[in-house]
């Protein structure tokens, strides 16, 4: 399940502020199963419990973009006894630095799992490295990962490269490296179709 917020353009009422909707969406179906309006003067990050309290999270992995913070992880992993798979960005510099320090070198052929496909006349290669989250200070963290996403033209020239680091409370016995890779990709598919 993905959680994501979007501003509804041209929806401003008397206050002049556009409405922001915060939704819980199923990855494969790309269907919203819960949605709330985010109150003015706050952000979706403060509304996770309000959105998900009525949603059954049994055996559910929640993905998000801007929610890699302790309160969200604690709500999901401790309060709701569910799972998260979250990207870690520059707005969490200590956590990102700790994850990068744990990761092996991303040498060619060393990825724990790789996918390759053709999309719109391009070859897209996604690789993931996954290691134990030992020493990571983040609620119930079990594994951390690095995803390298590279796009090549049909002549084999790389035209784009993106590296994403992340954290999950799924243990190695629960999630092989292919799962965080699929969850990350599934989240962005939902975002682009939301």
Helix and strand run = EEEHEHEHEEEEH
Give the count of helical stretches. 4
How far is the first residue's CA from the last residue's CA?
13 Å
**Backbone CA Rg:** 18 Å
For the largest sheet, list the strands in their spatial order. Answer: 4-5-9-8-7-6
Report the major sheet: 6 strands, mixed
Total strands: the figure is 9
CATH superfamily: Transposase Inhibitor Protein From Tn5, Chain A, domain 1
The backbone outline, from C-alpha atoms, is globular
Helix content: 10-25%
Care to describe what's here?
The protein is α+β, with helices and mostly antiparallel strands and 194 residues long. The protein has one domain: Transposase Inhibitor Protein From Tn5, Chain A, domain 1. It contains four helices and nine strands, in the order βββαβαβαββββα. The strands form two sheets. It has a six-stranded mixed β-sheet. The chain has a three-stranded antiparallel β-sheet with strand order 1-2-3. A hairpin with a 5-residue loop joins strand 8 and strand 9. The longest helix is centred in the C-terminal third of the chain and has 16 residues. It is globular. The mean pLDDT is 90.
Q: SSE layout and pairings?
A:
Blueprint: E1 2-8, E2 19-26, E3 31-37, H1 48-52, E4 61-63, H2 70-79, E5 83-88, H3 93-102, E6 113-119, E7 122-132, E8 143-152, E9 158-168, H4 178-193
């Amino acid at each position: 399940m993905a959680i994501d917020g979007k501003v509804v353009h041209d929806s401003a009422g008397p206050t002049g502020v556009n409405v922001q909707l915060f939704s819980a969406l199923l990855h494969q179906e790309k269907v919203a199963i819960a949605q709330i309006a985010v109150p003015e003067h706050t952000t979706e990050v403060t509304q996770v419990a309000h959105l998900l309290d009525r949603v059954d999270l049994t055996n559910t992995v929640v993905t998000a973009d801007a929610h890699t913070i302790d309160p969200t992880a604690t709500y999901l992993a401790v309060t709701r006894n569910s799972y998260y798979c979250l990207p870690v960005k520059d707005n969490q510099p200590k956590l990102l630095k700790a994850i990068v320090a744990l990761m092996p070198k991303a040498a060619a052929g060393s990825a724990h799992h790789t996918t390759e496909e053709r999309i719109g006349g391009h070859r897209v290669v996604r690789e993931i490295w996954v290691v134990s989250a030992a020493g990571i200070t983040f609620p119930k963290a079990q594994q951390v990962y690095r995803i390298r996403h590279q796009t090549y033209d049909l002549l084999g020239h790389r035209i784009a490269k993106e590296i994403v680091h992340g954290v999950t409370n799924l243990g190695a016995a629960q999630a092989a490296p292919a799962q965080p890779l699929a969850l990350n990709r599934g989240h962005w598919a939902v975002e682009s179709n939301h």
